[in-house]
Amino acid sequence: MAKISKRSNRSLRKIIIIISILFFISITINIIIYLKTNSYKNNYNNMIEQLNSITSSKEEKEKEYQKVSERLDLVNNIDERTNEVKKDFFTKAKQLEDKIIAGESNEKIVYITFDDGPYYLTYQFLEILDEYDVFATFFTIGDNKDVCYDNRSEDCSGMYALEASKGHTMANHTYSHGIWKGLYDSPESFMYQVKLQENLIKDRTGIKTNIVRFPGGAATAGGYKNRIIELLRENGYGWINWTASIGDGGNLRDHNVGWSNFVNNISANIEVLLQHDYNRVTLRILPDEIKYLKEHGYHIFPLFYESNMVNK
Fold first, then answer.
1. 118 preceded by cis ω (within 30°)?
2. Domain 86-301, classified CATH 1.20.120.740, yes or no
3. Among 100, 157, 212, 256, which is least packed, fewest CB within 10 Å?
4. How far apart are CA 276 and CA 283, in angstroms?
5. Pairwise CA distance, residues 170 & 163, whole Å
6. Are the C-beta atoms of residues 120 and 148 closer than 8 Å to each other?
7. Among 162, 170, 140, 134, which Cα is nearest to 288's?
8. 173-196 burial string, b = 16+ CB within 10 Å, else e?
């Protein structure tokens, strides 16, 4: 009996030990499962957060991309948009002209024009026009202009593009301005010079000119005037002289004379003011001219083909 009792005790101890081991293993497994589960949960939560962050970042990137795309579209279509604005502006300017001419409006318009450029001094004219938020018309030539005529150490070839980029009207004054050098030898010689300048301006600005001013004025063409006008019309050009001038086409050096000429010439409800962007007297009085015109109710516009002032 004693031996059986001892065996029973041993068996019981074994069972207890086995149960203890199994219990320990069970607890250990549960702890491991718990830890693993928490780890998985944490990893899962982290992945959710990362996914949310990625999704949010993706949405922000998409919004940024959309904004950039819109900006790119705006830049890519800037020429088209600019042309639309110009077209609308010129349409309204023409309507205003019509009302003024018909006596239905007391508004006044002046077109400030500069002949014979570009020059190195033109930079300063452009700065003044920018300062007063004024657009003008530049009747340019091309002969001997890549090197600035009034500053031989400077390059003026980029001036055409600069004038155009600022919104001023680019107009044609023939390539050579050679009044006594063959320009008016025939209607064909005149048109040849117009085409040379047209191509130069187109190459440097992307703009095809459609307004021309006869060097010296239309009367300088003499007996060829009518035929030249026919050729201009056939080539899509209108032509224009001027209604007012400050007399700066020669050697005007007196400020008071220039100002007096300006004031005494400006009186009509629509004026085309002739000046030259090589004259320092003109440069000096330009700010006062602009102030005077605005104070006297003038709208200062750049010329456009449809204007009543442009002969077609």
1. yes
2. no
3. 256
4. 9
5. 8
6. yes
7. 134
8. bbbbbbeeeebbeebebbbbbbeb
Sorted by sequence, the CB contacts under 8 Å of residue 312 that are 6+ apart come out as 233, 238, 305
C-alpha closest to that of 216 among 248, 173, 181, 254: 173
What is the token pair recorded at 296? Answer: 């006297």
Structural tokens at position 37 = 């589960």
**Tokens of residue 300, six digits:** 């200062």
Give pLDDT tens digits along the chain (312 positions): 544 455 556 666 666 666 666 666 666 666 666 665 665 556 556 666 666 666 666 566 566 656 555 554 544 555 677 788 889 999 999 999 999 999 999 999 999 999 999 999 999 999 999 999 999 999 999 999 999 999 999 999 999 999 999 999 999 999 999 999 999 999 999 999 999 999 999 999 999 999 999 999 999 999 999 999 999 999 999 999 999 999 999 889 999 999 999 999 999 999 999 999 999 999 999 999 999 999 999 999 999 999 999 999
Closest Cα partner for 298 from 92, 101, 106? 106
Helix residue spans in the chain (DSSP H): 2-76, 78-101, 122-131, 159-165, 187-205, 225-234, 255-265, 280-295
* Domain positions in the chain: 1-73, 86-301
